[in-house]
């Protein structure tokens, strides 16, 4: 059975026993590693099973197809990011635009071990699920919330536009740190500086004046 041949309209099986839950954790960890290494499209169900040390039937028992695996990963990654963005929003009122820019640009680097396949899923090109759009939408929403706390006068539309730019900068920065994108020793610092200048310029008009 190929990785893309199973199109059964069935939801993933929720394991009830501890051994089943452990197996699902192992399968998802293997899938996350592979998708981070090879991309969503290139990863197959057979490879996921092999990496997890599981039989292919065990994988299909819990996940009917690769899209179901990806969906489970997206849900987990989004939950982790939502917690991080909520914590960041609580701090954002005390951060300058420069400080917020530094926290944001480092966020994907810091979280990468826990959400290592997120970038691959956001870049996935599939007409079977809205993987990319859903992951990006949640990321933009979380970043925009922090931006509006830092700059209360910012409207929702502009906040989403700025957040989209920042998200792409975050992804490029992580790729440079991981040596997955063309870089030089000082290029990440230049990108960090660019991000600070961009956020300072865009947020300054919407922040409370120092005299209030």
TrEMBL record:
<keyword id="KW-0804">Transcription</keyword>
<dbReference type="GO" id="GO:0000976">
    <property type="term" value="F:transcription cis-regulatory region binding"/>
</dbReference>
<dbReference type="Pfam" id="PF00440">
    <property type="entry name" value="TetR_N"/>
</dbReference>
<feature type="DNA-binding region" description="H-T-H motif">
    <location>
        <begin position="44"/>
        <end position="63"/>
    </location>
</feature>
<dbReference type="InterPro" id="IPR001647">
    <property type="entry name" value="HTH_TetR"/>
</dbReference>
<protein>
    <submittedName>
        <fullName>Helix-turn-helix domain containing protein</fullName>
    </submittedName>
</protein>
<dbReference type="InterPro" id="IPR009057">
    <property type="entry name" value="Homeodomain-like_sf"/>
</dbReference>
<keyword id="KW-0805">Transcription regulation</keyword>
<dbReference type="InterPro" id="IPR050109">
    <property type="entry name" value="HTH-type_TetR-like_transc_reg"/>
</dbReference>
<keyword id="KW-0238">DNA-binding</keyword>
<dbReference type="GO" id="GO:0003700">
    <property type="term" value="F:DNA-binding transcription factor activity"/>
</dbReference>
<feature type="domain" description="HTH tetR-type">
    <location>
        <begin position="21"/>
        <end position="81"/>
    </location>
</feature>
């Amino acid at each position: 059975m190929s990785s893309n041949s199973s199109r059964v309209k069935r939801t993933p099986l929720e394991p009830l026993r501890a051994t089943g839950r452990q197996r699902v954790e192992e399968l998802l960890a293997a899938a996350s590693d592979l998708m981070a290494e090879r991309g969503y499209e290139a990863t197959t169900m057979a490879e996921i099973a092999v990496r997890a040390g599981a039989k292919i039937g065990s994988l299909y028992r819990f996940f009917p197809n690769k899209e179901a695996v990806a969906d489970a990963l997206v849900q987990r990654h989004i939950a982790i990011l939502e917690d991080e963005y909520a914590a960041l929003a609580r701090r954002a009122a005390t951060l300058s635009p420069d400080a917020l820019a530094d926290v944001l640009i480092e966020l994907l680097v810091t979280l990468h071990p826990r959400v290592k396949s997120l970038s691959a899923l956001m870049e996935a090109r599939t007409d079977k699920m809205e993987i990319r759009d859903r992951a990006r939408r949640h990321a933009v929403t979380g970043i925009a919330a922090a931006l509006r706390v830092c700059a209360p006068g910012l409207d929702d539309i502009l906040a989403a536009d700025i957040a989209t730019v920042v998200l792409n900068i975050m992804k490029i920065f992580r790729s440079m740190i991981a040596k997955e994108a063309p870089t030089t020793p000082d290029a990440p610092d230049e990108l960090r500086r660019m991000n600070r200048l961009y956020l300072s310029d865009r947020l300054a008009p919407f922040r409370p004046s120092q005299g209030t």
